[in-house]
Amino acid sequence: MNWYENLKKMIVAGRYPSKEAMELKITNFVADGLITVEQGLELKELLDQR
Predict the structure, then answer these.
(1) How far is CA 24 from the centre of its chain?
(2) DSSP calls for 4-23
(3) Burial degree of 23 (CB within 10 A; 0-12, 13-18, 19+)
(4) Closest of 44, 50, 18 to residue 4, by C-alpha
(5) CA separation, residue 41 to residues 8, 25, 27 (Å)
(6) DSSP letter at 33?
(7) Which of 5, 29, 34, 38 counts the highest number of beta carbons within 10 A?
(8) What span, in angstroms and rounded, lies between the C-alpha atoms of 8 and 50?
(9) Could you read off the pLDDT of 3-27 as tens digits, one per residue?
(10) Separation of alpha carbons 50 and 28, rounded Å
């Protein structure tokens, strides 16, 4: 399972409860080593564009 792609799809589709909750989820995924820091930053940038 590709966590990065799943999170990206959630952001693009707008399937998240709030921006703050999604930022926390991204941070936790980076901390747990499921996605890289670079991927986390890219997802946060995408989230900020929404």
Answers:
(1) 8
(2) HHHHHHHHHHT-SS-HHHHH
(3) middle
(4) 44
(5) 12, 12, 9
(6) T
(7) 29
(8) 12
(9) 999 999 999 999 988 999 999 999 9
(10) 20
Contacts of 43 (CB under 8 A, 6+ apart): 4, 7, 8, 11, 26, 35
CB 7 within 8 A of CB 26: yes
- Angular region, 33: left φ>0, alpha ψ -120 to 50, beta rest: left
- Specify whether the CB–CB gap between 10 and 16 falls below 8 A: yes
Tens digit of pLDDT for each residue in 23-43?
Answer: 999 999 999 999 999 999 999
Other beta carbons within 10 angstroms of residue 3's beta carbon come to 13
